[in-house]
Structure formats: C-alpha cells, structure tokens
C-alpha cells in the first residue's frame, strides 16, 4: 500500500488493511467500515447509534473495542465516527483523497455474509450532482446488502480511497443502486475528518473570498442562470430541468462587485466541502431557492490569471486522480482518462497563454467536459472563445437535433405507419411521441434556429432529452410490431401445414373443419390483423386436426354434401362397420388376430340373432355350424365384385338374375335388412385415419378439396 492509503497502478487488489467489519455488542454484524486513523473508524449512520458500543474486526483477525462517538443524520451526510479504545496496528489506516467523483469507475470492499475475509465489488458513479447533502449516486455490478453499509469506496485505477458507501433507497434490502459520500462531503459534515483527508480543495482560494455585504449584492437573474447551469440535466426545486449546455461563457468585469459576488457565491454553494450548512448564511432563500446550485455541481474551479495552459492541464490531471508517476504529458493523460469534469475557469483572457489555453479548452470540450468560462474583458480572446467554443458547437448541436427530429418524423414514422397497417398493437404512446416530435421539429427549425445563429441555444438539453425519448418510444413500438408480424407469419405457416395434414388424412371435406380453417385464414389475412383473435382461431383449428388424426376422431359434424342421418334415417357412421371389421371367407376380420391359443376357451356367450321383426333373442351355441354356413352365403351376397377401376361397379350376372336376391341398400352397399345398427367400434390403431361413409380404393389418388380423386381414382360417390 502506498502512503496515504492508495495502491498505485500495479496493486493486485487484495484485502486492504483499512477495511474493517463492524459488530454490535450482541455479535451481530452491523456493517463495514474504514480505518482512517489509528484510533478512528468511519461507517454508515444507518448501521449504528450514538453511544453504542462496537467491536471492530480487522482483516488479519485482530479486533478492537470502540464506541460510536459522532453520528451525522442521513439527511446530513449519513456518516458515523467510531472511536477505538486502543489504537489499531501501525500502518493499517488509510486516508481519504479529494477527487472528482462523477463518471468514475470504483471498487467497493465489504464483508458479505459467507465471505470471511471480504471481497471487492465493481461499480460506477453516475454523472451530475447527487443528493442534497453532497452524496453521489453509485451503480453497482451486483446487489449489495446492509452488511456493506459503511464500506470503503476506492478508485478503480489507483486504489485511492474516495469515500464511504451508503445504502440505496431501502437500507434493509440488497440493491444495485447505492450512494457514496465523497471525501469532501465527509469533511463538510464531520469537520474532524479534515485531518484524515488529503488533496487540494476543488475551489481555488482566490475564488473563495466573498465581497463584503454579499447578501445585499446579488444579481438574482445571473445567479439563477448559474444555478441552472450547475444543475445540468437534473431537475431543480421548481421541478424544471437545468441548463444542459456544455459550455457557458460569462463576462464578469473586475469592477462589477455585484456580478463578481454572485459568481463566487454560486461557486461556494456548488462545492461539496465549502457549501455553508445554512443556505441563508450565503444570502439565499434556502435550498429550495432556484438560484441555489446543488452541492457537487462543480468538480474544479480555478483562476488562471497569469498561468499557462500546461498549469491548467496538470491541475485537471490531479483532480481526475491520474497517476503522478506517468511520464506522459498531462494533456495526453487527460485525453485517455474516463472521468469527466464540470470545470470553472476564471480569468481566461488574463492568462499568460490565451491562445494555447483556448486550444486546451477545446480539447476538454471534445472529451465531454462541461466548461464555465469567465472573462473579465470583451477582447479578441473573448470573441474567439464564443465563436470556437459556443457558437459553432451550438450550431452543430442544433443541426444534429434537427437531423434527429427529421429522422423521427420521416423514415421512422413511415416504418411505424407501415407496421401499424399490418398488425394492431398498443401504439398510443408512440403516436403521442410522434405528434410531439413533429411539433418540436417545427419549433427547433423556427425561432430556435434563429437564436442558434447568434450562438444561443436555449433549452438545448431539454430538447435533446425529448428527442431521445420520442425516438426511443417509436423504436420500441416498431420492435413490438415486428414481433407481432413475425408471429403472424408463424401462424400462417402453421395453419398451412395443418391444412395439408388434414387434406392428406381426410376422404371428404368436413364442414366444421372448413369453417374453422376459413375463420383462421380470414383473421390472419385481415389488415390490421387482430393477433389475439387470429392466434386463438389458429389454435382452435390445429386442436381440431390434432384430435381428428389422433386415437379417437371427434364428432365434427356432417360431411359436406351428406345427410347427417344417413340413408334410411340412420347415421352413416352407425350403419357401417368400422374399417377392418368385415368378415372374409379366408379368416377373421381384418385386424383381428383370431383366438389366442394361449388363452383357454371359456363357455360360449349367448349371441344376438336378428329376427323377422327386428327383435333380437338369445340363442345358444348349438347352431354354430349352421350360422357359419349361412354367414358365408350372406357374405357372398353382401360383398360386391370389385371392378378393375377400383370401385364397386356391378354385380355378376348370376347375382343380378338370382331369384330372391336382395338389392343393395341405396347408399351403403349392404343388404337392406331390418337389423339394428351395429355399435360404433374404435378404429384399428394401425390405421391412421377412419374414413366415414365409404372406403377409398387402394389405387385412389390423393384427396382434393373439390372432392375429386387424383389420377387413377374411381368414380366419385
């Protein structure tokens, strides 16, 4: 560990000596802490109470007893200081470092339950000012629980200790959203921490002095504009967003004490460490005053009067926390750094190198730093700065905004309407965004464009946020409709496949199946397509076909062109035997394997014989031989001779002229006897589909929707 608690660029990220675990008197883990001095530990005020006795455990296994000496309420920093009864081992303490906080990669070392020595968790501080007490927002790579409250937060590049972790909105629940109290906020709320903190303050001493009689010497209009700029994209106490412009140039003459006092007052209020505890002491109307900037609104404020561009570059590099042992020039190291700054530079026109300084400021602007530049004279340097850093970039910003709005109201809107014509979806928010985008485009291209030509782009940040929101809503709506369109294609393909499956299996068209198919087809073809209704219709058809081609055929209704009652007032399915049940002269019915020799024959069951009046009676097994002979004769009469074409064309001449021959039934091919209908038998499982009404000839062609067979098919029934 380096002096001061940092690790340097080559640190392997082991357990730091300053990281401690905090236990209450009953042995329960209260949270984590940071050893900032041999006799002092900082932790979260959410975990301990004033005067509570605490045990502090170190990473090497040692421990010290302590007592909570001072607690800052959550609304005033949320930090607690624990005084140890015995000093900690020498060299174990770390010190806090003043650095810029927003947009920085950090690491948090805590003690989750189940991890004895503790471990590191990655995170990133969010840009812009944080809470009213100076804390910064932190996004973590994984949720951290209450046992991490009070843990140390270190810079991911150097390992320097930046501050202390505070829990998120719900202190008792794990969360990936948390807060970090930076070193400067700790010093402000806990003055004794100034002795444990190193690094230069964010505001130069020459900018800290306030003119006498400041409360009466305030320019409210200028103060409000400064507060809005320091607020950035965040909302103020009046609910309005701040000025999101990246560069602001102000002319504050040396003899204008009112304007100068307003500027310095705003700098002190925007600093985390120098901000007065009572806003009234700085001549304001309180924290709710829209002319009061939020704490953390600035990261660095310097006076470059009589100084060079290289001096400013080195000052910026130090504030960013870049390693001092890097031999590269500070200008190059700044360009490679990730964190950004909100920088105030006063006396730009009175520096030793105004031209080189403007070039450096242009580089800082290119890396997304926010700049407030203060000039003292209306000189050529002032005019160049306005042209190079404000007017031209604002015009480019305005052109980019107009281009985005034209893209929203042009190609993106056309794609939206094209998809909306195909499928119906919930697009109310997208339609509202499109209307607002068109209105904003008209406004930006009108009066705002005239102002931009003179270097002014009021509400630029608000307009850009609105345009991004409108574009996001339209893209989300288009993506949602694309998914519906793809689903519509899937349903159409599924419907076609099931239609082919049904046609391959069916002998005749079924009215119920045809109605289900037409309903699904019409719903899918409708524009815009109602996807829930279409999906339900396709599901009904596919379920019908699945049941049809399964083990048992559903009663789907009459076949097209057929009387539901069948010839003679009987249902066709009841009048005909199941496929494979007809007896033949060679053996048992098709699909019947005959008697099983392994099963002993039992007593004969009584049979049901039809009588002349259709009344069955029981008969014993003694007449089996006569019945067998009679059955063969009846079978010879019942079975028509097959014509070469595959259908039942005609009987033999002897059958036609035989006296007493019974003509075939009008539609069934069986004798018209007064016999009761045979009970419906389930289909043979070896047959994929049970045709109704008639059997297809073996050489019949494929079924067609018009009811005609294919090539080689017999005549239609």
Automatic annotation (TrEMBL):
Region (Disordered): 109-129, 274-293, 549-717
Originating organism: Actinacidiphila guanduensis
Coiled coil: 460-494
Keyword Coiled coil: yes
InterPro entries, alphabetized: Peptidase_S1_PA
Keywords: Coiled coil
Record keyword Aminoacyl-tRNA synthetase present: no
Protein name: Uncharacterized protein
Composition skew (Low complexity), residue ranges: 118-127
Gly residues composition bias: residue spans: 707-717
Compositional bias (Basic and acidic residues): 670-683
